[in-house]
Design brief:
alpha+beta, CHAD domain, globular, about 475 residues, 17 helices, Hypothetical Protein Pfu-838710-001, 8-stranded antiparallel beta barrel
């Protein structure tokens, strides 16, 4: 078995034609190949479910059987376990897979394997000495085909043959100085399955980060940060092409979780890393926040108000204003994703996360307990004073509970117990209610900007009344959480 460390980048056909002329490649001989691959799976797509790929590849006159077991990619970088051997097309022999349990899983399904999709592309390869490493740079151009549907391939893959993983990033940065290269998260296999299933574009929700007690805090941070980055990147296409507000919501949550993770792990991270990347995402996060505020107002806050005041002329005015603001906010997000600095940020942040050094050696479980206790104390201190909190302090309490929830989610695999479920359920309910209160405060602010301030509006009165009811009902939810927290 070999471990494949690979960086994938999308580029335009024009940039692909320019790549061969780049000074870094000008004096290096290249090889050209025509690669035809057929991917197999069971009728129930059991390999796909386990993030496994099995393919036959025709490479010149040679046929190869390849098995890949993939981890989620972030920032374009993927690490995969790979087994490859010469083979006869259609004859499956997994004896070269040296993981006994995995090999048994594959062998039990040989009779069920059938073609799912093909990839057909031409590859040009350079072996680039760079820094302390030897890196294979390949550009692939062709197509993926399944069930009569096709999707184009135009991408670069950089694979570390020997040396240090950071050299892949440094090489890519130099290429990005002359070419627009965008870190890609979907492999050809993933795209092939999407084509086979005719999968529509859907908002992507956060998946639990896989951390264990044997990791150091920095290693755990690396898993969590890349998990957050994947969460954002999976929603990127929806931000660019879809009007579904859930893409904005999920992208915003991803960046909030990412920034929370940086603050959470700041005691064990280099100060310069925290100072740089704690603020780097703020501009994009603010744009997503603006869009999300108007989406919530338009989709959730305004409809019940319109029902309560069907003849109020302000409703139509507010709806048009919200629609206009929503469109402008989306344009702002698309503009930020279109600038050259955005793909560079993805790459630089991924490189920084992979190469960040340990600052404070401490067992991960001890660090997790310390951080959970710290965030619990902050939330509890405000919760017991709920009745006397000012609006600004109540906002701080909402943020404190949000950070506590993220902290518990990040460390769930380390601290989960039977008592965790009701505790987390109470915390979720509390955060939802605080979120509704905040939505009404935001709505009131938005309405004040759109309506004449000197004129009383029944809409504002409705929001104020609803706001008061939500605050009154919050007491019971807080007491429920405090009871679970003390148990």
């Amino acid at each position: 078995m070999s471990t494949e460390i690979e960086l994938k980048l999308q580029l335009s056909p024009k940039a692909a034609r320019q790549l061969a002329k780049h000074p870094l490649l000008a004096n290096i001989a290249s090889q050209r190949q025509h690669l035809l691959n057929t991917y197999f799976d069971t009728p129930r797509l059991e390999l796909h479910e386990r993030r496994v790929a099995v393919r036959f590849r025709k490479k010149g006159w040679q046929w190869l059987c390849t098995v890949k077991s993939a981890e989620p990619a972030s920032g374009g970088l993927a690490m995969r376990s790979e087994w490859e051997t010469q083979a006869t097309p259609g004859t499956f022999d997994f004896s070269h897979v040296d993981n006994a349990d995995f090999r048994a899983f594959l062998e039990q399904r040989i009779a069920q394997l059938e073609p799912v999709f093909t990839t057909d592309f031409k590859r040009q390869i350079w072996h680039v000495p760079f820094g302390e490493s030897l890196i294979e740079l390949a550009i692939d151009r062709g197509h993926i085909e399944s069930r009569g549907r096709a999707s184009p391939i135009c991408e670069i893959e950089l694979e570390l043959l020997s040396g240090k993983v950071e050299d892949i990033f440094w090489l890519t940065r130099q290429l990005q100085g002359d070419l627009h290269l965008h870190p890609a998260i979907a492999s050809k296999a993933e795209r092939g399955y999407n084509l086979f299933l005719d999968t529509p574009l859907r908002p992507f929700k956060a998946r639990p980060a896989s951390i264990s007690a044997d990791l150091t805090p920095v290693e755990a941070f690396r898993c969590i940060a890349l998990n957050c980055l994947e969460h954002f990147q999976r929603n990127e296409q929806g931000l660019l092409t879809s009007k579904d507000p859930e893409f904005v919501h999920q992208a915003r949550v991803a960046l909030r979780r990412l920034r929370s993770a940086i603050k959470l792990f700041s005691p064990v991270l280099p100060p310069e890393f925290v100072a740089t990347y704690g603020q780097t995402w703020q501009t994009l996060g603010s744009a997503l926040g603006e869009a999300r505020n108007w989406d919530v107002f338009l989709e959730e806050t305004l409809p019940p108000i319109a029902t309560a005041f069907p003849d109020d002329k302000d409703i139509k005015r507010l709806r048009k204003a919200a629609q206009r603001k929503t469109q402008n906010a989306r344009k702002s997000i698309i503009g930020l994703l279109a600038i050259d600095e955005y793909p560079r940020l993805l790459l630089e942040f991924t490189a920084a996360v992979y190469t960040v050094d340990q600052r404070l050696p401490i067992p991960l479980e001890d660090f997790a307990r310390q951080q959970i206790a710290r965030h619990t104390r902050k939330a509890r201190k405000l919760a017991v004073r709920h009745a006397e909190l000012t609006p600004a302090e109540r906002h701080k309490m909402r943020i404190a509970f949000k950070k506590l929830r993220y902290t518990l989610e990040f460390f769930a695999s380390l601290v989960a117990t039977r008592k965790s479920r009701p505790y987390l359920a109470a915390l979720t309910q509390l955060q939802d209610e605080l979120g509704l209160i905040n939505d009404h405060i935001t709505a009131s602010t938005l309405i004040e900007k759109e309506l004449d301030e000197h004129r009383a509006s029944p809409v504002q009165g409705w929001i104020s009344g609803r706001h008061a009811l939500l605050i009154a009902s919050l007491e019971d939810t807080l007491q429920t959480w405090l009871a679970h927290q003390s148990a």
